[in-house]
Every structure is written in structure tokens, then in C-alpha cells.
Design a protein that fits this description.
The complex is a heterodimer.
Chain A lengths: L3 E4 L2 E5 L4 E7 L6 E7 L5 E8 L4 E4 L2 E6 L4 E6 L8 E9 L2 E4 L3 E6 L1
Parallel strand pairs in A: 2-11
Antiparallel strand pairs in A: 1-3, 3-8, 4-5, 4-9, 6-7, 7-8, 9-10, 9-11
Chain B lengths: L3 E4 L2 E4 L5 E7 L5 E8 L3 E10 L2 E4 L6 E7 L2 E6 L8 E8 L7 E2 L3 E5 L1
Parallel strand pairs in B: 2-11
Antiparallel strand pairs in B: 1-3, 3-8, 4-5, 4-9, 5-6, 7-8, 9-10, 9-11
The chains are: A mainly beta, B mainly beta.
Chain lengths: 110, 112
């Protein structure tokens, strides 16, 4: 059974600091990995998807890396802003199904 | 935003009553999913569909059934609701099942 772990569970940083969010998974036979953002009481918004053959994916201030062999992915958010405050979830796809981590809740202090 | 709607958005029901949640998409995606989200457990897959009338179980399927008679609609039924099924339910869609999954706004269900 695929286990997905996100550490830390919560993170508080001052505005402008770079954010580093970690995701690890136990079974490296994944097809791809997806990062999501969830605001309180809302649904999930897809941020980035990394194919298993890729090493990283970038979108604006967001960069996600993937190391399948070690079962790790990292989401970097540059120059954080208060609007980045949310819960960030990673999920791995295998056999057409997603397995989610519990998320990292980020607070960016103004 | 992907065209996904869920209905109802909020529901309060009593133990033992049947409940049906609806997910509707306008993207013509083949794959549709039902998840539940609970504190301490994160998001867990209940059932998914890979085509009209084609469904399969997920991680927490006991007590739930699904149906998909049209590409655009995926129904989740709780045959006899229990308090342990109080949760937030999310529907998601994907084109091939291996691409980005897009999520609906969620349904908050309270079983008294």
C-alpha cells in the first residue's frame, strides 16, 4: 500500500521568505506526482503535475522536483506572500488512482 | 477552472436514511472519482469510474455504492447513512486517469 508523508505538518514564515515543502512516498512505481493547494473550506486546486520521467516542473514562483528513486518530491515557493497561506497536498498516481499525503499547512505572516 | 459541480453542497440527514450525492462534469473526461476528506485521515478514495457503467472500488468503499449511466454524471449513494460517514465529499475528474485531476467544490454531509 502506498504511503505518502508530508513533513512538516505546519509551517509559519515571514513574508518574503522562500518556502520548502517536502513529500515522500514508499512505492517508487508511480506514474506521476501532483501538488495541490487547498484553502479553508474549499476544494483542491491543482498547482503542478510532474510526470515520472521528469525531474522538475515550474510555474511562476512555484517549482517542484521529483526524485523517484528516493521516493521524494519537494515544492519550492519563492518569495512567499500572505496569499500563499493554505494547505498544500501532494499526491502520487499509480494504477489510475491518487494517494494523498496529509498536507502541510502554511501561514505566511505579513 | 474545470467544469465540475457537486450537489447538494450541504446536507444534514439522519442515521439510516439513504443519501445520494451527484457529480456533474462538462469536460467529457473519462475518469471520475469520489473522495472523502476527514481530519486526521486526509483524502481517501471511495470509488472511481473509468467509463460509462465501468466502476471500481477505492480504499474506503464499504457502505457506499456508485453509478455512472452518462459520461457527465457520477452518483455516490450511501444506502443507509451512519454517523461515521459524516465528512466532506469531493468529486474529481481526469482525462486519461494518469493526467491532472480536477476537483469539485465538495459536499459537506452531516449524519445525525
Amino acid at each position: 500500500k502506498q504511503e505518502v508523508t508530508q513533513i512538516p505538518a505546519a509551517l509559519s514564515v515571514p513574508e518574503g521568505e522562500n518556502l520548502v515543502l517536502n513529500c515522500s512516498f514508499t512505492d517508487s512505481a508511480i506514474y506521476n506526482l501532483q501538488w495541490f493547494r487547498q484553502d479553508p473550506g474549499k476544494g483542491l486546486t491543482s498547482l503542478l503535475l510532474i510526470q515520472s520521467s521528469q525531474r522538475e516542473q515550474t510555474s511562476g514562483r512555484l517549482n517542484a522536483s521529483l526524485d523517484k528513486s528516493s521516493g521524494r518530491s519537494t515544492l519550492y515557493i519563492a518569495a512567499s506572500q500572505p496569499g500563499d497561506s493554505a494547505t498544500y497536498l501532494c499526491a502520487v498516481i499509480r494504477d489510475y488512482k491518487l494517494s494523498f499525503g496529509a498536507g502541510t499547512t502554511v501561514t505566511v505572516r505579513a | 477552472d474545470a467544469g465540475i459541480t457537486q450537489s447538494p453542497r450541504h446536507k444534514v440527514t439522519e442515521t439510516g436514511t439513504p443519501v445520494t450525492l451527484r457529480c456533474h462534469q462538462t469536460e467529457n473526461h473519462r475518469y471520475m472519482y469520489w473522495y472523502r476528506q476527514d481530519p486526521g485521515h486526509g483524502l481517501r478514495l471511495i470509488h472511481y469510474s473509468y467509463g460509462v457503467k465501468d466502476t471500481d472500488k477505492g480504499e474506503v468503499s464499504d457502505g457506499y455504492s456508485v453509478s455512472r449511466s452518462k459520461t457527465e454524471d457520477f452518483l455516490l449513494t450511501l444506502e443507509s447513512a451512519t454517523s461515521s460517514q459524516t465528512s466532506v465529499y469531493f468529486c474529481a475528474i481526469s482525462g486519461t486517469g494518469l493526467e491532472t485531476q480536477y476537483f469539485g467544490p465538495g459536499t459537506r454531509l452531516l449524519v445525525l
